[in-house]
Amino acid sequence: MSKFHSQYLITMKDIVREGNLILHQATQEVRIPPSQEDKETLTCMLNFLKNSQDPVMAKKYKLRAGVGLSANQIGLNKRMFAAYLKDEKGNEHEYTLINPKIISHSISTIYLPQGEGCLSVDRKVSGFVPRYERIKVKAFNLSGEEILLKLKGYPSIVIQHEIDHLNGIMFYDRINQENPFQLPENSKSLHFTN
What we know:
By secondary structure, the protein is α+β, with helices and mostly antiparallel strands. The chain has a single domain, classed as Peptide Deformylase (Alpha-Beta Complex). It has helices at residues 36-53, 55-61, 154-166; strands at residues 68-70, 80-86, 92-105, 109-111, 131-132, 134-140, 146-152, 187-189. A hairpin with a 5-residue loop joins strand 2 and strand 3 (92-105).
């Protein structure tokens, strides 16, 4: 029985930090339809992201703001994550995805000029992280229905960051080691404030 039931409040002490082996291993597929436990865990993860972006809750519980959280970041070897973010136009996006797979992507890439961060990484990492500008993702939702998402811009970056987590890849693994600010050709900067 997982402690991450719907009433549980995830805090920073639940977040696995870099160096832990679970962050460097590919996660296990989740059985479909998802169990009640998996549904509650994902809801709990989504609530953490909402709380972390709420100034009052974040201060009260000392939460670092996050836009995505994968199951292995709370120590669970499960292929699922939650994301809660605003895109470039200020539209809210909420995702609880199970067994997500990128089925196609653009050739063009984008990156965040300020770099990427991660709840599991307590230090500033300099360098650009190239991401596909557009992706198509197949996944299952909380009801166990297969869904297809077409994402571009910031939502595309966040979802790729989380799918990387599920594959045991950290965002800084994608930074050019010789030259952290070198990018693939035709890479565009994504400018917006979150």
